[in-house]
Each structure stands twice: as C-alpha cells, then as structure tokens.
Fold Glycine/sarcosine/dimethylglycine N-methyltransferase.
Amino acid sequence: MKGKGSINPKITLHMENEKTLIHDFDLNLICDYFGRLERQGPGSPESTIRALSFIDNFSNELNIADFACGTGGQTMTLAQNTKGTITGLDLSPDFIKKFNTNAAKLGLQNRVKGIVGSMDNLPFQNEEFDVIWSEGAIANIGFEKGLNYWKGFLKKDGYIAVTYESWFTDERPNEIEKFWVNAVPEIGTIGHNISIMQKAGYSFVAAFTLSEKCWTDTFFIPQKAIQKAFLEKNAGNKAAEAFVEYMKYEAELYSKYKQYYGYVFYIGKKI
Ligand SMILES: C[S@@+](CC[C@H](N)C(=O)[O-])C[C@H]1O[C@@H](n2cnc3c(N)ncnc32)[C@H](O)[C@@H]1O
C-alpha cells in the first residue's frame, strides 16, 4: 500500500501507461480501500511462519513489536505461533481499531495490542524488544534508516524480520524500473540490501523471496473482490476511481515483470 500525502509524502503515484500523476490521495480514502482487506500488502501466513522459524528462541515468552502492522494480518499469525506479547503500531487509527477488534475476535487481546504511532518516532524504551517485525512497510521510512533507528529498540541478540521490495536482477526493463524507483527510491538488489543490514549492525540470519502467491492470492485477488463496493461507496469521487486504476496497474505490472522484482524477507540478529 503506497500513497502520497498522509501516508508517505515521498511517494508519488505515477501511472506510467497514461502519464497521469495522481495527487493527494488522502489517508481516509486509502484506509477505506485497504481496511476492507485482511492484509494491506503482499505476504502470507506461510511466509510469516517461515521467517519466524529462523528465530532461535521463538517459543519463549518474547516481547515482540510489529511496526506498520496495518489491520494485523501477519500480527495474528505471529501471536498464534509464539507465546509472548506483541505490540502492533501503525499510523492509521482506523487500521489500529480493526487490529484490536481482530485480536479480540481471536481471543488474543491479553497478549496483542495495537497502538497508533509513527515508526520513525517510536514511543518505546531502548532495548525493549526481543523481536522487531515489519512486513511491507519499511520503505515508508527507508530501509537503511529503519534498520538503524529500530536497532536501538532491540535487545542485544534480538532479531529483526522485515519484508522489503527488492530487485531480483541487476538490470530490468525501463517501465518497471521507473515504476519502482518512483515508489521506493532506495530499491536495491538482495545482495545490496543484505550488505545494508550488516552495515547497520546486524549479523545476517536469512533472506528469502516471497512466493508469487503472496502477491496474487493474498493481495491482488482479494482487491478485485472489494473494488466494486469501494467505487459504489465513493461514487463520483475521481480520486477513488484513479486509485483503483492505479492498483489495477500495479497488478498488471506484477504479472508482466514479476521475474525482476518482489518482496524479500530479511532476517538479522543485533550484534
Ligand atoms: C503495505 S501496508 C502493510 C501493512 C501490514 N504490515 C501488512 O503487511 O498487511 C503499509 C502500512 O504502513 C503504515 N504506515 C505508513 N507509514 C507509516 C509510519 N510512518 N508509521 C507507522 N505506520 C506507517 C500504513 O498505515 C500501512 O498500514
């Protein structure tokens, strides 16, 4: 989920095919769209559990943070596969409301709590967490900046696990290069990103690419099911129409160029 303005002023939505710039999607519109979905970005329970398997002591009572948790798709999977407490943090009050409702529905409210906040200005103590998790969101503050800033909130030997947009090849067609450099200016190859993680003071634990299903089955296909209702609710709203077109365009690009890029899970251990 990427949007200009309230979510990340650095991101400009640019429909390369129609040469249209889409300005000023407000947070309410984006949250209305993505709040209808279980997840707000590519991912799956399987990939969350796979990443968790690289964390030595995950069956202990850990203190876990999930930054930019959205409505908590991955957080609930984490909670169901660990014993400790999880604090989810997201900029969107609407998402956090849904997050806490979801936790309560699953009987997890005593261990899982969502709070509103920004991941570049965290309300936590130094070295508070055993594990910091973040799926599909670190680009909003920058991969390097996020890894460096968040490290202060991790205990020594604590783990970080993030998914991040990454190139799978050294070169790629212009259309997809422009689209992703526009959305995530820092986007790099997997090797480059691992090196950033190591320079930030983590030892490298694992990296794996998210499967195509993480994009199609849990992200693009569920969107098709909600677009009609979203457009009906926002009838006559040009920004809403343009936003749906943008999301369709992102799905088309993925099907055309998926061999060149994707999300990668990066797991590191604080030294
Ligand atoms: C692509 S969604 C990912 C949500 C969820 N982790 C998932 O994978 O389904 C990105 C999330 O980042 C949140 N976000 C963007 N900028 C943020 C910031 N500065 N601090 C906290 N959350 C932020 C958005 O509200 C949104 O929920």
